[in-house]
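Working notes for the structural subgroup meeting. M.R. asked for a predicted model of this chain before we commit to crystallization trials. I am recording the input and output together here so anyone reviewing the notebook later can reproduce the run.

Input as submitted:
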Amino acid sequence: MPSDTFRALRDSVLSKRPVLNELIQKRGQKSLYDYTKDYISVNLNPPIQQRQDELVGTFRKEVAKLLGDEVAQKAAKQLERYYYVSTADHHGPICHPFFINANLLLAAPYKEINDPDLQYVIVLACASISFRNSSFPRGLLFHNPADKKFEVERVAFFPASMRACPVFNWRAFVQEEIETIKRDISNKVKAKKMAPMVGTKINSLMDEVYLQPDVLACKTFSEQVTKTNYMLWQKFFGGAAQTPANLICLEQETLVMQLLLDYHLEQDTILNHVLFDVSYDPLMQQYFEGVMGAFSIKDHWGSYLFWAIPPGQKYRVQLWKQGNKLVTDDGSYQLELTPAALRVAMEQREIFPTTLLDFFVLSFYYGLKCVGGFNQINYLTDMKNAYIKMNVDRGNYRSIEVCARAQTKEMNDGFTLAFVAGSDQKTYAATGLDFILYGDTTTWPRLVETIKQISVEEAFNPLLPELYRVIYNEKDRQPELSAITDEQIMQLTGLDKKITPCAQVG
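Returned structure, recorded in token form:
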């Protein structure tokens, strides 16, 4: 691949993502390790600190419900001192390379900081996605070296027929579904479509994590994900002298709804006005129309503040503001915008907040630093600027003061650093389960060393082909740029020489 073709790809991507371009220009030469240490620095001011107790207290209660009081107390103490989280993840099993890399990156500097209060990687994950999402939230991913190939194996908890359903409020998997997975794995081993060692370890994982009584007792899949990801993460580097901090992966929509229920339905806050004050409607439409992650009334995408899952339905549907109501397209579901009606709908989980409302609450009202993905750093910055303009129009100077301090340009998703070496002498982006299947006691130290050795720009470059496909419609893509692979980029930039695989197929 000629270097000028690579530069054309890079320029095409960064021209469409100005905040990402700014990050690469300003911090691209920093090592990933030094860059991630900057996450810990948070701009707190007195208004944020006055509101912080509400968020931290609600977070503690939600964690306690799923992971127990001891974990909740320690995690809340950490969040109070280190007021940042990752919002890069989709709420599903911690397997996809995007999310594995993002969370390992967060954990890397903890040992050097050496603070006993810094014990967890805290993730507020998005459950608004459907089960058809490319991150495969409905099951587990791992590489299977059968037949001298090294392909990604998918193990699903739920049938393909529910791929269009949202993760939010989906039912819990049951024992019979996990037992079916175990039988399927055993049959693949017998048919020599899976290595015996792989089959044994995956089935053991089913017993040790997914068939635990407290997991099967959960009411929703989201609750199961929080419990099982906590256990699963600890197994990635089990037995090693050096291991990363534990992982807490909590659904962001539930946390946001609880904050709204406890503090904003009846109190005189900016969030209360956004929900119920009709004088904000034209400002919402003026400043947020067409912003990625928000909504477009003109082009009919997104939803207005909430999505709905009406009683008896499985799929999320759009809501639009009509007078004093939120209404679906066909009018079959209508929700009066009053505190009492919103309370009932949220408690019955008929509605859940959009990405825009999530960040109104977490980032702009409570001032929480939300470290996220390559798209988030752009749309969250756009949302912040729009939110400030809206509040300038209303003269809400306290709200402007808090939001102005919100840090929106920190990225942890999209960096390439964790690889597994296949028996075919090629390297592959590691899934979480690959650490269990093919890792050893040196896996985590190798990862930390890689994070120290490569720069932000070097780790970002292999993402360019994926970003190009996300940003440009197929009709707008140039064939020469579409043909570039991440492997070619790693070879051209020399990254393939700097990265040592952290796991190896035997």
